[in-house]
Amino acid sequence: MTQKNIDTPERVSVRVPATAANLGPGFDSIGIALDLWSELTVEHGPFEVFIEGDGAEELPRDEKNLVVSGARAAYNARGAEFPALKFHCANGIPFARGLGSSSAAIVSGIVAGFALQGDGTDPAEALELAADIEGHPDNVAPAILGGCQIGVRSGERWVTSRIAVPDDLHAVIVIPDFVGETAQARGVLKDEVSRADAVFNIGRAALLANALSTGRLDLLRFATEDRLHQPARAGIYKGLNTIIRAALTGGAHGAFLSGAGPSVMAFTTGHEYTVAYEMTEAARLHGIEASTRIVRPTDRGAYVVE
């Protein structure tokens, strides 16, 4: 996405991908975009938020909706008055399941807000706005830039770097039929970690980036291990460890809690349906009803529909 000046449109539509954050050890700093999309259409008119698809019954239809927050941030960034707008959300990303639905809403609002002002979206500027709203870059960076992204904060700015992933990589996602509360999932985490656990995760985050970029997918079994958030979250998501083990038994290279959960994701390059079956059966044995999606990572981030 590049900066450009065009006539100010009356209506724009933006597509934004789902994302999985953390990928095991990369807590709040690594995420990947997935070929699973939501679409936002915004036009001038009396204020309205219309929602269809996932989360339609739960999401707010007023100024608290994150698509509105994102659009407002784009207008504030230009020092422009925020106009009355109609928002139409067609949500294909599962709501509150650890697949970046909140980040997608923020990013789509930002991209739409710039487009309505006649601007293309500068990815660096969009990242600053979105990460400041979200508080961390692990979901918003891949939602904006596509691909697998490392995101960190240095001083007052956010810095990202892409991790190349194999072309044949798939993601098998088991999506429980209950929502995850991010505040609860973060609330169970410790404020301090031991040196041993810090070393454990530092090594595995480095191994994760190397395994993906070099195609050494046999290393993902170890590289997706974590001690910073998954052990604590296993206490609120029953069956998490069993589902991860089932994915590995079924032939996955690695498996992990997606974001703050409750979805569990596995990386595969074959045996996708076997892995999906094993994970779903492990969930069922813990009394968890779940659906399964098999998707590919995508190198494309949010974009304006032409």
Describe the structure.
The chain has 306 residues and is of the alpha+beta class. The protein folds into 2 domains: 11-164, Ribosomal Protein S5, domain 2; 170-295, GHMP kinase, C-terminal domain (Alpha-Beta Plaits, 2-Layer Sandwich). It has helices spanning 66-77, 101-116, 123-134, 140-145, 182-187, 195-214, 220-223, 230-233, 240-250, 272-285, and strands spanning 11-21, 30-44, 48-53, 85-91, 148-154, 157-163, 170-176, 254-257, 264-268, 290-295, 303-304. Strands 1, 2, 3, 4, 5, 6 and 11 form a 7-stranded mixed sheet that branches. The longest helix is centred in the C-terminal third of the chain and has 20 residues, at 195-214. The chain is globular. The model is unreliable at 1-5 (pLDDT under 50).
